[in-house]
Design goal:
Oligomer: single chain
CATH architecture of one domain: Orthogonal Bundle
Helix content: 55-70%
Strand content: under 5%
Order of helices and strands: HHHHHHHHHHHHHHH
CATH topology of one domain: MetI-like fold
Distance between the termini: 58 Å
CATH superfamily of one domain: MetI-like
Shape: flat
């Protein structure tokens, strides 16, 4: 008994100490990063301007402009010719944007259905053979529909766009040799149709991946609370799908924008046709023409990519798609936060 009492008394905290569940009074010690002189990295504290991503983006833009000016000064191309003729490419550029956006929007309406079919392939089981089972004869329409969706996606993704465009143009040219509608000739409409078919196949896979990325546990939880399959899809699956496929759809739009250059083979006067025929051949400035083309594509694609990345970052689902810091290692180098083995 004496030993037990001595053990109990030794385990009790001294009278002057605070209980373990209470914070002791007095000033709170500063974090180690603040005591060492390094900028704090905790949430809610703005890092220095020279460690933000905007600083590195501006540094990259300044470096690109410096290279552009340096190559012009060295005589690789005429800078003043580019400055004087850059505005003449706005019309063809708008036409390229129209082809890209129209085909992309039309393709979404078809790609969503194809992706939905491919995300829910038909299953074969003994329960379908039982009399009175719901969906007993669903194989009569589900398997052909799934086969068509799978074959369409495989064909589009497995063949070059130039081949697809030639098949569409040659096939329709015999039926509609002279077709004009809304100010576009038959070649513009043939190119738009081919571009729509191409982007539909790629967007279908984006939708399929987004739908299948929703965790099965959430679907089971929705069933447990009494939601129907339709309610589960529109309230659980679909909202998360659109937030998960924001960046893949943006990448598809950018890829579709660059693919639209092949429409120049149909004599569609888009931005690539303008740079090649008008600037490179007629004005005899080939390097300047393609430099202006590169400027247009960089301005649109890089700007769109950064804007959508910011939107996706703000609207990201917590726990899904956590981003990897783009310049995390550079920030650690500038802040002096290298690991011990790197410091030597």
């Amino acid at each position: 008994m004496d030993r037990q009492e001595d053990g109990i008394r030794s385990a009790r905290p001294p009278a002057g100490d605070a209980p373990p569940t209470r914070r002791s009074t007095g000033p709170v010690p500063l974090p180690s990063a603040v005591r060492s002189g390094r900028p704090p990295t905790s949430a809610g504290v703005r890092p220095p301007w020279w460690t933000t991503s905007g600083f590195y983006i501006g540094l990259g833009v300044a470096g690109a402009l410096a290279v552009f000016v340096a190559l012009g000064r060295l005589g690789y191309y005429d800078i003043w010719f580019i400055v004087d003729n850059l505005s003449s490419g706005f019309g063809p550029l708008i036409l390229s944007l129209e082809f890209t956006t129209y085909s992309f929007v039309i393709g979404i309406s078809f790609a969503f259905g194809l992706g939905l079919v491919r995300a829910h392939p038909p299953k074969v089981g003994k329960h379908l053979a039982r009399k009175g089972t719901r969906g007993r004869f669903s194989f009569l329409w589900r398997w052909p529909l799934y086969g068509f969706a799978t074959g369409f996606v495989a064909t589009v993704r497995g063949t070059p766009f130039l081949v697809q465009m030639n098949i569409v143009a040659i096939s329709l040219a015999y039926v509609y040799p002279q077709f004009t509608f809304l100010g576009w000739n038959q070649f513009c409409w043939f190119g738009l149709l081919a571009l729509t078919i191409n982007t539909t196949g790629y967007q279908a896979e984006v939708f399929r991946g987004g739908i299948q990325s929703v965790e099965a546990g959430q679907i089971e939880g929705a069933k447990a609370v009494g939601l129907t399959r339709t309610q589960t899809f529109f309230r659980i699956t679909l909202p998360q799908t659109f937030r998960l496929i924001t960046l893949p759809l943006t990448n598809e739009w950018i890829s579709n924008f660059k693919t639209a250059t092949i429409l120049s083979a149909l004599t569609v006067e888009e931005v690539y046709y303008w740079s090649k025929e008008t600037i490179a051949i007629n004005d005899v400035h080939p390097i300047e023409g393609f430099v202006m083309l590169a400027i247009f594509y960089l301005l649109i694609n890089v700007t769109l990519s950064r804007v959508v990345t910011y939107i996706e970052k703000v609207r990201r689902i917590p726990g899904l798609g956590t981003p990897i810091p783009e310049v995390s290692y550079t920030k650690r180098v500038l802040r002096g936060e290298l690991p011990a083995r790197a410091r030597g």
